[in-house]
Amino acid sequence: YFVFVNIDIEMNRRSAAGDPSPGGLEASLVQLVHHHQLSSAALRQQTEKAKKEAMRAGLRVSELVVDAVNGGVQESFLNQKRIESEIRSLSATISRFHKHTDQWLAASRALNTAIKEIGDFENWIKVMEYDCKSITAAIRNIHHA
């Protein structure tokens, strides 16, 4: 629309000036076409430049996203390794604790058995003491009789 309006204005201007030559009109049209080609070329260059910038920005965004995802994956992997190391350490600690618990349990059972044996020995001593007193009393009775 803009081109046609410019052509009409140019034709009216030339008619008013008394310039009926078609060469002037052709020159105007050539100039308009040339101007259009230059502006199209400039627009194409701007579009290509913007496209390249968009591609660079998109590439940078994708690199940042990949880095962010990989960073999270790497952090998760390191955390998993730390957790596995802690699990192995805790497992070894639990095994040592289990071994010590078994040793304490065996020692307490041995002590309990020894205490029972002491009680049995004390009871045997009392029985022996009673038997000795009974024998001593019987011998005295026999000796006084």
Helix content: over 70%
Please indicate the percent range of residues in DSSP E strands (runs of 2 or more). under 5%
Q: What average pLDDT do the residues reach?
A: 83
The helix count comes to 2
Organism: Opuntia streptacantha (Prickly pear cactus)
Family: Belongs to the BLOC1S1 family.
Pfam families: GCN5L1 (PF06320)
Protein name: Biogenesis of lysosome-related organelles complex 1 subunit 1
Task: Characterise the protein shown here.
The protein is an all-alpha fold and 145 residues long. Helices cover 96% and strands 0% of the residues. The chain is built from two helices and no strands. It has helices at 2-17, 22-144. Helix 1 (2-17) runs antiparallel to helix 2 (22-144). The chain is rod-shaped, with a radius of gyration of 57 Å. Mean pLDDT is 83; it is low at 1-5.
Annotate the secondary structure layout:
Layout: H1 2-17, H2 22-144
Helix pairs in contact: 1-2
GO cellular component, one term: BLOC-1 complex
Family: Belongs to the BLOC1S1 family.
Protein name: Biogenesis of lysosome-related organelles complex 1 subunit 1
What's a quick, concise take on this entry?
This protein is an all-alpha fold and 145 residues long. The chain contains 2 helices and no strands.
Features:
single chain, mainly alpha, disordered N terminus, BLOC1S1, Biogenesis of lysosome-related organelles complex 1 subunit 1
